[in-house]
Write a structure and sequence with these properties.
binds flavin-adenine dinucleotide; 8-stranded mixed β-sheet; alpha+beta; about 850 residues; single chain; 6-stranded mixed β-sheet; 21 helices
């Protein structure tokens, strides 16, 4: 009999395995380990050279949980820290984990405010973190210069781990359960079969083929090129990444906490009695944009110390003793980064069974435990067990693969790791690549542009001929006056909003109606000329999309989703219509989308069309082609602002003409151009949800208050029907999305502010803005009643507060929106 251990050590390639994991870095090894722990032991891990030979072997090994306002990221980190502490007991292989503590220095008011917000949020997730004074920093890390620091954030449970030992422990644990790890095998491509929806059938290696149901691309900085062989978009790119290690220094000992001063670009930890000084410089350098050498193993890069010298000096001045110490190692190695500093994770659109986990953005060691568990759960159950809307590999777009984009964005994005992250911070590279057909007109009107999933889009307008400018800040800014005026224009008059970035798909063919009906929780296959707001659910009832479906013709539908959900909604649609007699076409770039919103929108529309747009003739949710000037425009009476209004879908060649026609006709009605900042405040006053922000795959329709959009009596089967109906029948859930409003008009919401009921933490804000009509910060928060259902009575009986950067403010919460709860203005 062949034991699990003996089988796992074999260098012979098996003919088949259920899962092939490609890449023996810390990520692939952790995925294999967690698959085995979930009972999937028919797993082969293939490593091109030897385990850790890519990036993992040279990582600094910081195991720090502090620094995120994401539930998923925080959970990943906390789980990993716990795992690394207990892995030796399970496997007999030490991980080198040492909880020496972390001190994160706040050197300026912006960072202090940011870290207070993070600390408040992460405490609610179970992270022990204390704000400490500069004197206390000096007591714990005496070598640092603290005279100009404002505070520190001390996390006693954080520390460091040895990346190679951690990987070996994960590998040992995986092998003990029967996983086979074969080194010296290069995967050339993933083999698939199928037509409109492919599925994995195996992997092709330099030593032959292995049949499998699942392939996991965990090939680190090689992941992009491996994915490209199957036509996939995984735009991670290697960058130079630096640290140095000094000779032994007096006073440096193994128990010294990890110290980070992002404002000085540096992190510091003990290494061999000396100090490691690691760097995140503000502008970095991509490495090997043309492709990573196939034989690069345990490799180092030629350091560019001339470029690094000013940043290194700043970092060393924070811990002055390093300036005089001898340098034992100058190190530069490659780590791969993604365009948005978030990892590329999940099943790719278009190929069933092809998973990716790559682009770890310099936190692959500390993330590996939690990320491995997440991917393994996803593969084995179809459910990642966490909100993955921000991580999903399907968010990336082909233009992000271009060499120019990778070179420039990678150099910038590494620099954002240690930058301050005040609201309004903008990326400067990769801009202007996707433009609305109205772009030049928006610029001429003084638009302050921001990046919306790659599209340049107006956030607010300074006015014609003005040059808009804004500084990132946590405080109110002068441009807030423009935002307020635009918000009020939509509430009391009329506003025009360019939203051409919205994702638009045509679904056509004899099978289109049945297919969309099966995918949607709403009754989308009703009358021609009507729009339906609906969710797409998975088999467990989890939310996979939140969008509108408009029936244009009996066999033709327009599906519209938000920009952030573009890839996911399209992938979901294609995957679930692959067997149908229906064609899906992405028409995002074929139509501009312009929103005319506000109580006077009807007057303006009536002035530019010969169609009857009266309340009697053009009801709420009607959709029809109307003439505007010399063009035909699809007008849909719907709103995301909470007012009377229309979305106008305009063939791009007519967009400029239609825009000019409306702007001209709107002048006597006080029409104002309105940006996305106002749309955000308008929609949050009205409690309208945004997928990826307020809604995610872990939610069901009941908890987020979307039961009204479910067609409970719809005949036939639809995906997610049983769990959705069961959730709705079960009565009020214990966790619910509620509107939240601060009574004090001064503080601002952005995201992740902590919500308390009777002094006890019960949730946090998912999206926040400022309610100019309501007179205070407003948002949508997810709150949980630990003792029962979150009923209206439970909400009303509590005394509510929100923690904004460590200060508590009285608040109101409500299941119904604070603004126009009966929607009288919408139906007008
Ligand atoms: C200087 C530096 C310091 C860092 N410090 C930290 C830190 O303190 N904390 C932290 O959390 N992170 C840190 N990181 C980041 C961390 O090292 C990475 O995020 C992590 O190692 C990535 O792991 P991985 O498994 O994705 O990639 P890799 O370790 O590169 O593993 C990918 C593996 O895939 C194999 N492979 C590639 N192509 C194929 C193929 N076709 N077939 C078979 N095998 C293939 C490669 O040989 C490689 O072994 C640091 C990185 C650097 C460069």
């Amino acid at each position: 009999m062949v034991t699990a251990e003996a089988r796992s050590s074999s260098s012979v390639l098996p003919e088949r395995a259920r899962v092939v994991v490609i890449g023996g870095g810390v990520i692939g090894t952790s995925i294999a380990y967690h698959l085995a722990h979930l009972g999937w032991t028919d797993v082969v891990l293939l490593e091109r050279d030897r385990l850790t030979s890519g990036t993992t072997w040279h990582a600094a090994g910081l195991m720090t949980c502090f620094g995120s306002t994401s539930h998923t990221s925080t959970e990943i980190r906390l789980y990993g820290r716990d795992l690394y502490a207990r892995l030796e007991a399970e496997t007999g292989q030490a991980t080198g984990f040492r909880p020496v503590g972390l001190i994160e220095a706040a050197a300026d008011p912006g960072r202090l405010h940011e870290y207070r917000r993070i600390a408040a949020f992460q405490r609610t997730q179970g992270l022990e973190v204390h704000e400490i004074s500069p004197v206390e920093i000096a007591e714990r890390f005496p070598l640092a210069r603290t005279d100009d620091l404002l505070a520190g954030f001390y996390v006693p449970g954080d520390g460091r781990v040895n990346p190679v030992d951690l990987t070996m422990a994960l590998a040992k644990g995986a092998k003990a359960l029967g996983v086979r790890i074969v080194e010296g095998v290069t995967v050339e491509s993933v083999v698939t079969q199928g037509d409109r929806l492919q599925e994995v059938t195996g992997v092709r290696t330099d030593r032959g083929d292995i049949g499998c149901e699942y392939a996991v691309n965990a090939a680190g900085m090689w992941a992009r090129e491996l994915a490209a062989r199957n036509g996939l978009v995984v735009p991670n790119q290697a960058a130079e990444h630096y640290y140095l290690v000094t000779e032994p220094i007096d006073g440096v000992h193994a128990g010294l906490p990890v110290f980070e001063d992002p404002a000085a670009y540096g992190y510091y930890r003990e290494e061999g009695g000396g100090l490691m000084v690691g760097l995140f410089e503000p502008r970095a350098a991509a490495w090997q944009v043309g492709g990573i050498p196939r034989d690069f193993s345990f490799g180092t890069l030629e350091p560019d110390w001339e470029r690094m010298e000013p940043f290194l000096r700043t970092a060393m001045e924070r811990v002055p003793v390093t300036l005089g110490a001898g340098i034992r190692t100058f190190f530069c190695g490659p780590e791969s980064f993604t365009p948005d500093l978030l990892p590329a994770v999940g099943e790719v659109p278009g190929i069933r069974g092809y998973f990716v986990c790559a682009g770890l953005n310099s936190i692959g060691i500390l993330s590996s435990g939690g990320m491995g568990r997440l991917v393994a759960r996803w593969i084995t159950t179809g459910d990642p067990g966490a909100d993955v809307t921000a991580f999903h590999v399907d968010r990336f777009q082909p233009w992000q693969l271009t060499p120019a984009m990778r070179r420039e964005r990678t150099a910038e994005i590494l620099g954002t790791v240690y930058a301050a992250h005040a609201p309004g911070t903008q990326l400067r590279t990769g801009r202007g690549i996707k433009r609305s057909p109205l772009h030049d007109k928006l610029i001429a009107a003084g638009a302050y542009m921001k990046d919306v999933s790659g599209w340049e889009s107006p956030d607010w307008y300074a006015g014609p001929g003005q040059t808009p400018s804004a500084e990132p800040s946590w405080e109110p800014q002068p441009w807030f006056a423009h935002w307020r005026d635009e918000h009020e224009a939509v509430r009391t008059g009329v506003g025009l909003i360019d939203m051409s970035f919205m994702a638009k798909f045509l679904v056509e063919g004899p099978g289109a109606a049945a297919a969309l009906d099966r995918i949607s929780a709403g009754a989308v296959a009703g009358e021609v000329g009507r729009i339906v707001y609906t969710q797409w659910l998975d088999e467990r009832g989890g939310l996979q999309a939140d969008l509108t479906v408009t029936r244009l013709e009996p066999d033709s539908f327009l599906v519209v989703a938000s920009d952030t959900a573009h890839g996911h909604a399209l992938g979901w649609l294609r995957r679930h219509t692959a067997q149908d007699d229906a064609r899906v076409t992405d028409v995002t770039a074929v139509y501009a989308q312009v929103n005319l919103q506000g109580p006077r929108s009807r007057e303006v529309l009536a002035a530019v069309t010969s169609s009857d747009v009266s309340a009697a003739a053009f009801a709420f949710r009607d959709a029809r082609w109307i003439d505007v000037g010399g063009a035909w425009v699809l007008a849909v009476r719907i709103t995301y602002a909470g007012e009377l209004g229309w979305e106008l879908y305009i063939p791009v060649e007519h967009a400029g003409h239609v825009w000019e026609t409306i702007v001209g006709a709107g002048e006597p009605h006080g029409l104002r151009l309105v940006g996305l900042k106002a749309l955000g405040s308008l929609r949050l006053e009205k409690g309208y949800r945004d997928y990826g922000h307020d809604l995610d795959n872990t939610d069901d329709v009941a908890s987020v208050g979307l039961g009204f959009a479910v067609a409970k009596d719809k005949p036939g089967a639809w995906i997610g029907r049983e769990p959705a109906l069961a959730a709705l029948a079960a009565g009020p859930p214990s966790a619910r999305l509620v509107s939240v409003l601060l009574l004090d008009p001064r503080p601002l919401f952005f995201h992740a502010e902590v919500v308390l009921r009777d002094g006890i933490t019960v949730g946090d804000v998912r999206s926040g803005s400022y309610g100019w009509t309501l007179g205070g910060a407003v948002g949508l928060a997810f709150v949980t009643n630990p003792d029962g259902p979150a009923t209206t009575e439970w909400l009303a009986a509590g005394s509510w507060e929100v923690d904004v950067a460590g200060e508590r403010y009285a608040a109101r919460v409500s299941l119904r929106p604070f603004y126009d709860p009966t929607s009288a203005r919408v139906y007008d």
